[in-house]
Amino acid sequence: MKIQKILNNNAILALNDNSEEIIIIGKGIGFQQNPTNLVNKNLIEKMFVNTNTKNFKYIKSNFSNISEKYIIVVQKIINIALQKLNKPINDMIYANLINHLQFAIERYFKKIPILNTFFREIKMYYPEEFEIGVKSLEIVKEEFGVDLGIEEASFIAVYLVDAELEHDSSKVIMLTEIIDAISKVIYYDLEISADNSEDYDKFILHVKQLIMNIIYEMNQDLFNNNFQEIYEVLMKQYPKEYECVIKIKNYILKKFKVEINNDECTYLMIHLIKLSSNY
């Protein structure tokens, strides 16, 4: 692979063996290098192939016009995320996080506070991503000498969830709002409050997957009314949980114009029955 352009000491533009334009990042990969030099493969940490022209230009523009420190910080954050989450994340998070952190640090020095109105919900419903956000703050403090505050961890978590889903962050916020609304339904109807129990986490995970299936139109063919008999038994034996599930069903219908069937209602009832037994 040959270097085409030095973006900065830690990012270069190059051509791979298929003559495709790529961006390569790695600590010191561009230091004292010149165009046409061969790429030092031992320094490669991440490569971006030009498979989406718009996204590629956006990433290239960000790496060309930003302090190298931001690239180092974001690479550290993403390395932690990949290890912790053990799932692929969209490459756009590199440019998005660089932009966000630059803005957050500018706000810090201008003493402009920005509050995340979904801080509590993000911390509760995306605990792994939030934990990575907290660790990210430590990296930022170490590299830039600034303490952005715990609220910033929730913003970083949103970018991580967004990158996992490969969709825009507005849908992450929508997902969070809906999960929170459903949590309030079970709180007011069954007096089940958010806690750190395994059963509550399983319920939230199930709701999250259900809503994601609806938002992104995934796996709708999985619900085929196979548990009608179980549904009818539970409906009679656990009327409070059944009524709560019907409220959730109606909320989803109103929100998305999608009616979840009795199989899904059965799964929700089972979760709520287990949760109710703990109270």
Automatic annotation (TrEMBL):
| Gene3D superfamilies cross-referenced by the UniProt entry | CAT RNA-binding domain, PRD domain
Domain PRD per the UniProt entry, residue ranges: 65-170, 171-279
The answer on whether this UniProt entry bears the keyword Repeat reads: yes
Provide one Gene Ontology biological process annotation. Answer: regulation of DNA-templated transcription
* PROSITE patterns with a match to the protein in the record: PRD_2
Source domain of life is Bacteria
Q: Name one GO molecular function term.
A: RNA binding
Keyword Nucleotide-binding attached: no
Protein keywords: Repeat
The protein here is known as PRD domain-containing protein
* Species assigned in the record: Williamsoniiplasma luminosum
